[in-house]
Amino acid sequence: MKRLPAYLLLLLSLPVAAQKIGMADRRLLQKKEDSLKVYADSMINAEHAGKRFLSDSQFVKTFVRALKIPNSFSYPFDSLLTVSRLYPADSSFRIFTWQLKKDEYMYYQKGAIQMRTPDGSLKLYPLFDASMFTAKPDDSIRTRKNWIGAIYYRIIQKEFQGRKYYTLLGFDDYTIGSNRKWMEVLHFDEQTGEPLFGGPYFSFKDDTAKVKPVLNRFNIEYKKEARTLFNYNPEMDMIVYDHLTSETEEPKRKETYIPDGDFEGFRWENGQWVHVDQVFNFKLKDGEFPQDATIKDASGNVDEKKLMEQSEKNIENAKKREEQQKKPVKKKD
Asked: Taking the model in full, what pTM does it have?
């Protein structure tokens, strides 16, 4: 069974404001979770497509019934290892994302946002992936009905002028030759409460090479077998990601893109993520590329924990080297 990376599972288990679940309801939730585990595994790993689609349908129906149980927001569903569950710092909602394997070439992303409610009743926003129907996924603000699907692995809460913004980082098994990682800002409409994805939150104003537009969302696309860093570094308060280059000098072919040792990033400034063209002033040595995993190990599972640890070590080494380079050289007598 394909499991979510170990370090993601830790991120998914953030503190949530306590809502008491009755003993009978808890037992019912546990029973439904047992069924959900079977469906969740089958919609990825079943041999035949028909079985996978049937399992997805059964998963959705059972999941909604489970969420309708009073105070289900406090129930973690932590045995659903193929389903991402993220909470923001304020625990005002949680977002579930998962994927359905259509065939060897395509995955459908699915999702839902469950709001925390004072009385423990269900307030749910299903998400419908429309990424396969658009050639310009970074062109607009989108609703839950035309969401650009991704399996989210990080959520960063920021505020500007009294409004809260939730930045989502996600992974997409995009094509047979390439993967994508997405950066998306979620906020909620003040009038309707509906979730809105995207907006003019990604600025390239500080880039000197050429003028770039403000984007509504941002992604990197890279070779399927490559391992890339794209994550939030709390100490730096930045989103840091690998600078990519074509290993075959074919810039139009994204399936040839791999890390080259440089890092780019985004820093939150006045309600926007402002692009930082070069996070460090030097390249890492060969073999020191951060290893924020998106590929499978020998067993076919994703192992992000070990690779993320290496990513953090490489970032720390880079910071130390930059500080060392800034120190004045002592002259010999």
From this structure: 0.79
